């Protein structure tokens, strides 16, 4: 397919996203208010239940089949020395995910979630029986010197993410979490956030893998240079994604859109995942009610990034690992919310007076 055909395909999928079911959300809230507690006393747990009802169109959806999609890709901007770790760590960590040894694997096992690792842009040959190999690019180009991707590559990566989500949905998955791996991707995320949220790089560039003050100052300048050189259009999310983004970020944009198009909630992880959520919200505004923000990352700029979308985090544990760890950890809160709604007695069933 040529780029026009791919853009039309994406547009058709975006148009298919159903509006949030306000009636189902209202019925969930009405039920919550009848439970043996003061109205609103369970706080965000009540809001989660209403959002899940509105997203799925079901009062108490079965979300027991869940997956975290870990998109992996490399970044040419690593040539600029913006990370405490070398680019070789990306494929090494992919193998760690596939062998079940990463933090996200531990938390996913606890939460009953499948870890789906996707090579969408790693700059190395990867082979493993459990790997979903959907390589769009062999790493992005150095955005400090030229566009990270072509518009066609960014579009292909988004559609790849949609296809990955749809494949999981065909297997019964009804709840998604976003995860990622890619040395250098906080730099790309900071650049995207600066452009789309109209924030200076001083407010969006963080320490990522744990860089020192000198490297941090350099990283800010690299982001400024990338934006100045490429002139991404803030009114065109795809243009921004292509010029200063990454393949794994684009893949997550697709996962979010694909999940929403199938009325599946998606729990957003940290800074990189939320950057993908911001792009998704610009390309497909109807995706926003399907998103739940898992946690407030310790990475600079994450709070402002969530504000730009209109999301509020469920937890704040000063995490900044990525991988989907915060999102998978938040699955337990979604489970608790639904169980409370289904198993708590109402005032009438318990014979308790409300006044």
CATH third-level topology of the largest domain: Rossmann fold
Strand order of the largest sheet: 3-2-1-4-5-6
CATH class of the largest domain: Alpha Beta
Secondary structure class reads alpha/beta
Let me know the CATH homologous superfamily of the largest domain. Nicotinate-nucleotide-dimethylbenzimidazole phosphoribosyltransferase (CobT), large domain
Radius of gyration using CA atoms only? 20 Å
Average pLDDT, rounded to a whole number, is 97
Strand content: 5-15%
Q: Name the overall outline.
A: globular
Q: How helix-rich are the residues, as a percent range? A: 40-55%
Structural domain count: 2
The tally of helices reads: 15
Instruction: Please name the CATH architecture of the largest domain.
Output: 3-Layer(aba) Sandwich
* Unreliable residue stretches: none
Which H/E pattern describes the elements? HHHEHHEEHEHHHHHEHEHHH
The end-to-end span amounts to 65 Å
Largest sheet, in brief, is: 6 strands, parallel
Let me know the number of strands.
Answer: 6
Verbal overview:
It is built from 15 helices and six strands. It is α/β, with parallel strands linked by helices and 355 residues long. It has two domains: 69 residues, 5,6-Dimethylbenzimidazole Phosphoribosyltransferase, Chain: A, domain 1, CATH 1.10.1610.10; 268 residues, Nicotinate-nucleotide-dimethylbenzimidazole phosphoribosyltransferase (CobT), large domain (Rossmann fold, 3-Layer(aba) Sandwich), CATH 3.40.50. A six-stranded parallel beta sheet has the order 3-2-1-4-5-6, sandwiched between helices. Strand 5, helix 12 and strand 6 form a beta-alpha-beta unit. Helix 3 crosses helix 14 and helix 6 packs across helix 11. The model has no long low-confidence stretch (mean pLDDT 97).
